[in-house]
Amino acid sequence: MKHAAANGSLDLIKALLDAGADPYQADTKGHRAIDYLLGYGPTPPNSRLNERQRQRAAQWLF
């Protein structure tokens, strides 16, 4: 889920959530998928998504 949030399309993020992926699972440093999506984790914000798409994905992941 974290990799998709950091690099995936909006459709991929939604498909993983619909399939039961846990958006709250954290990595070893405590970063969750939303952190990866918005660039608060070890990666910059998801560059495949525009601002509106990132906001939509953030609502799903929060």
From TrEMBL:
Segments carrying the region annotation (Disordered) are: 42-62
In the record for this protein, the ANK repeats are positioned at: 1-28
Q: Which residues form a coiled coil?
A: none
Q: Which PROSITE patterns match?
A: ANK_REPEAT
- Which domain of life does the protein's organism represent? Bacteria
Keyword set includes Chloroplast? no
Question: What InterPro entries does the record point to?
Answer: Ankyrin_rpt, Ankyrin_rpt-contain_sf
UniProt keyword RNA-binding, yes or no? no
Residues in the signal sequence: none
For this UniProt record, give its keywords in alphabetical order, as a comma-separated list. ANK repeat
Put simply, this protein is called Ankyrin repeat domain-containing protein
Origin species, per record, is: Rhodanobacter hydrolyticus
Q: What is the lineage of its organism?
A: Bacteria, Pseudomonadati, Pseudomonadota, Gammaproteobacteria, Lysobacterales
